[in-house]
């Protein structure tokens, strides 16, 4: 249970939920409740499918390009650390597109890009999923990781469904601070992955 909870938290923070929340609030401010629900559901599907692909087939990519797990840990951890620094140094402003055109195409584009990719499933998330996938062994371990991933996606969906309430509770300043706090956790995870890769490379 402890391993599941730890893995769940790691994946959930990799999805940068508070940055995704800020982006969702910005781009969905002129959408109806039904359209917002559609965006969230499409985002959840896109995040789940893309994450499972990197999780389950990442080791074959290693094999194809002749990349060792330790080398990828160093690279993925570095990317994750740099992404975290961007979150910490961010001024809180999110690039937006025009959300006034409430067409199916606009909703689809907004849900998948940029909400799912690269916001929730960015370079850091891809890296950690491929590392976790390469280290998976046995059906029980695979099931634990997949359940952790699905739980993290469900939690992200829950955050977005409560977006308006969270905005009222925290205010604009609070929403600007949360991604920076997330960035601190993500930077620590990135540093740990780099150290693990270096240790494995030297031993």
Provide structural commentary.
The protein is globular and about 55 Å long. The chain has helices spanning 2-14, 17-27, 33-65, 69-89, 104-120, 123-135, 139-161, 163-202. It contains eight helices and no strands. By secondary structure, the protein is mainly α.
Question: How would a textbook summarize the main sheet?
Answer: none
Give the averaged pLDDT, no decimals. Answer: 84
Structural class given helices, strands, pairing?
Answer: mainly alpha
Reading the helices and strands in chain order gives HHHHHHHH
Q: Any idea what the shape is?
A: globular
Secondary structure tally: strands: 0
By DSSP (H or I, 4+ residues per run), the number of helices equals: 8
Helix percentage range: over 70%
Topology:
Elements (H helix, E strand, L loop, with lengths): L1 H13 L2 H11 L5 H33 L3 H21 L14 H17 L2 H13 L3 H23 L1 H40 L1
Helix pairs in contact: 1-7, 2-5, 2-8, 3-5, 3-6, 3-7, 4-6, 4-8
Write out key terms for the chains shown.
203 residues, 8 helices, globular
Summarize the entry for a quick read.
This protein is mostly helical and 203 residues long. Helix content is 84%, strand content 0%.
